[in-house]
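Summary for the steering committee. One of the milestones for this cycle was to obtain a three-dimensional model of the protein with 6-O-phosphono-beta-D-fructofuranose bound, which we needed before selecting residues for the alanine scan. The sequence and ligand used are listed below.
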Amino acid sequence: MIAAPAAPAPRCDRTQAWGALAGHFEAHGRDFDLREAFARDPGRAADFSLQAPEVFADLSKNRIDIATRRFLVDLALECELPARRDAMFAGDIVNTTEGRAVLHTALRRPGTDGPHGEAVHQVLSRMLAFAEQVRDTASSGIHDVVHIGIGGSDLGPQMVLPALQPWLHPGLRLHFVSNVDGHDIAPVLSRLDARHTLFVIASKTFTTQETLANAQAARAWFLAQGGTDIARHFVATTTHTERAAAFGIRETFGFWDWVGGRYSLWSAIGLPVALAVGAERFRELLAGAHAMDEHFRQAPLAVNLPVQLGLLDLWYRNFHGFGSRCVAPYHQGLRRLPAYLQQLEMESNGKSVDASGERLPFGTSPVVWGEPGTNGQHAFFQMLHQGTDVIPVEFILVRRAHHAGLPAGDYARCLDEQHRLLLSNALAQAQALMQGRTADEARHDAAPTASPDLDPEVLARHRRFEGNRPSTLLLLESLTPRSLGALLALQEHRVFTSGALWGINSFDQWGVELGKALCNALLPRWETGDTAGLDSSTAALLERLR
Ligand code: F6P
């Protein structure tokens, strides 16, 4: 018999606070003007700034006032956010469709107390010891590591490594292969020597088509190169050690079904990070994330940064109707962060039914996208400033640059100056988004590249910026394993917050299944040419491709 589930916490749209927010939106939200808000209140920046572990946040350039924040906190309370959060940390079955606990936070608890503490630390110690052995390249003989995985088994480590560039092992090159497209793996392997290469096959399920195809290609290449000792050159990170063993892998670092793929960086899936930066730095990454976990668990909701970001996401999505958020990290080391956050948020909250399966009458995950600054400024920022859609931007800044081992001199001064340029650009973009430029200002500002034949009135209309476009600024003092850990945990918990209020299961991903099944059904048709039952488009394309 199936036990009756505990009464679910109220969904956001079924609360009194939701009604209050709707009223507040009509009265003060729809026409909220950031410029007026700043002019009215000189204390606005201070009122809407928050300090969380390692991350300072300026939320003041968002379309919120004190009342918005109060109503949003009321909403969180009515939706029982603290109880839901505590249930996740306690190991309750939060992922109801898969009947699983959600305990990635247990992976970064420093002690062995708490759920699964012994098991977590046992694998962690073994994995870190292995990483240190490999990092001793003189005795391990390993100079290249090829990490094969996809999605949550790839994006985390791939994003972290460039961020931690100053700490990377100088004699150990890390390569990432994810795409089933052979054009991903082939150029990587073409540069390597099998005798000095270690393969890490990373897959929670050890059934993912792309990863298994790449792992088989890697094994074939290894053997063709004269490699003999698969057990020494292939290791796996997975929850299914027996499947890895069937592949011929003996050294496996396990994790558990209560770690979601997109939350698995902190588990054995982080092995490439440990290989690249070493055990101590990996522990610092975990410590930073743990500090943010504690903030999320303990800080009052009004000053709880992940909660405030999640509430803002909901405010923009459900009341302002913004369907997208741009992530703009102003640090080249964070260049893969937008892709990582895309999976984190869109796979978690890209759902259209609530936990009980009822269709939702409101929007959920926004489209999350972005590129590092200043590159994005020369690509899509035009649309952010003058396009027809309002897209909130999340700027991520790092106060201090870190160029390891640089002797003082002109070169160091140039790089220092470049950092000031970088930060000034970020501040200027946020200013421009908010302030805009009136047609009158445009009329008076010089425009040397404008056509002299154009009516100045028409030109002013082209050069006008609407402004009032919101942005958030997250600031790290410096980019370190610890601050990066905190930043990533912050993002996880903001996704949890909006997902919890929307009443959805943020921890399953049924939406990726159908394409996988259809792909498997198409594969045999390449041999037979059978197109029976296919729509005419797919049938014609298959014939053309064969
Ligand atoms: O894209 C679906 C997904 O299941 C992700 O959630 C996961 O991170 C990825 O595939 C890889 O899965 P695995 O780690 O099992 O190979």
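Key point for the committee: Residues 150-153, 203-205, 208, 211, 261-262, 347, 509, 512 surround 6-O-phosphono-beta-D-fructofuranose (CB under 6 Å).
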